[in-house]
Design goal:
There is one protein chain. The chain is mainly beta. It is built from one helix and nine strands, in the order H-E-E-E-E-E-E-E-E-E. Strand 5 and strand 6 form a beta hairpin.
């Protein structure tokens, strides 16, 4: 894990340095664009011990502001700020010892406000055409509320939910760490038109924090968010 953190830190420093380098020898830009985004977030929780899951799919909505400052050779360098509402959580994939689905079902829905701070590099048409882009940076989130959906569990001989690995403590555990942070990165394509900019993108978020406490005496040693996001973005130029 420390090695992963170090590599992510180096990546962030490299992206942050790109606009600065461009400011020295690039062509200046002064474009401000704002807009909205909407899409779907597909989340799993990296539990240790492992809990089998399928993708928890839920909406994500947000506000977007982008500041383009330089064009360095063919690369447009920008800073993108977002404020998103996203529903995360997990959906358990319950299997018995013969890998047959049990009738039990459980899903946890967790609602977050998220603040990604992204460096954005684009290639292509600035106006009247297509542009491909890559973005990456840190993301911070704050937990708002949660709810769950569950069936009437099949119980074992001890009166606990029947699970292949015996884990059921999570059903009675509210989220313990409300502050979430990690790294997000993605790519997309943007179409510039007379009525604004329309983009479609995919990104991945890796949480560096855990939703539950992770000391040796706690149930889980790890419980971080892992999210794939597919979204559409609409922007219009202010300047």
């Amino acid at each position: 894990m420390p090695r992963i953190h170090s590599l992510l830190y180096i990546l962030l420093l490299s992206l942050a340095a790109a606009p600065r380098a461009a400011a020295q020898i690039g062509e200046p830009r002064n474009n401000i664009a704002v807009g909205v985004s909407a899409g779907v977030a597909m989340n799993t929780i990296g539990f240790d011990p492992t809990i089998k899951q399928s993708q928890h799919m839920a909406p994500t909505l947000g506000l977007v502001a982008r500041f383009t400052s330089e064009k360095y050779f063919n690369t447009l360098c920008a800073l993108q700020l977002e404020l998103n509402y996203t529903q995360l959580g997990w959906k358990e994939k319950v299997l018995d010892s013969n890998s047959e689905p049990l009738p039990d079902k459980y899903s946890r829905h967790q609602h977050y406000l998220q603040l990604p701070l992204l460096a954005r590099l684009g290639w292509g048409k600035e106006q009247g055409g297509l542009m491909g882009y890559f973005l990456a940076g840190p993301q911070f989130g704050y937990f708002l509320t949660e709810s769950s959906e569950q069936s009437l569990f099949t119980l074992d001989a001890y009166g606990k939910p029947n699970r292949p690995n015996g884990l059921s403590a999570q059903y009675d555990m509210p989220i313990e760490n409300k502050f979430d942070y990690g790294i997000t990165a993605g790519a997309g394509i943007e179409w510039s038109t007379k009525v604004g900019r329309i983009a479609f993108e995919a990104r991945y978020y890796y949480g560096l924090s855990d939703i539950y406490k992770n000391s040796k005496k706690d149930v889980f040693g790890r419980s971080n968010n892992n999210t794939i996001v597919l979204k559409a973005v609409y922007l219009f130029d202010l300047k």
